[in-house]
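Title: Comparing notes on inverse folding

I've been comparing how different people in this forum approach sequence design from structure. To keep things fair, I'm posting one structure and asking everyone to reply with a full sequence. Here's the target:
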């Protein structure tokens, strides 16, 4: 359902979008990490454990959660 959830969440302070789909390209100024495979998702999760990531990002957005299963 397209109601602007990702667009709204992308406006949160220090937000990072983990993007399993390309719709984020239509969101101006969004900080996004494209993800195409489960292994990429796991790598990003490891990187987010780093203290520098804690300083850089306060909000992590996963779009679209249902697409995670297709990436596995």
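Reply #1:
Here's my take.
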């Amino acid at each position: 359902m397209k109601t602007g959830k990702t667009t709204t969440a992308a406006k949160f302070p220090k937000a990072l979008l983990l993007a399993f789909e390309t719709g984020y390209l239509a969101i101006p100024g969004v900080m996004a990490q494209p993800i195409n495979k489960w292994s990429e998702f796991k790598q990003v999760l490891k990187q987010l454990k780093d203290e520098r990531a804690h300083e850089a990002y306060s909000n992590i957005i996963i779009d679209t959660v249902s697409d995670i299963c297709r990436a596995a």
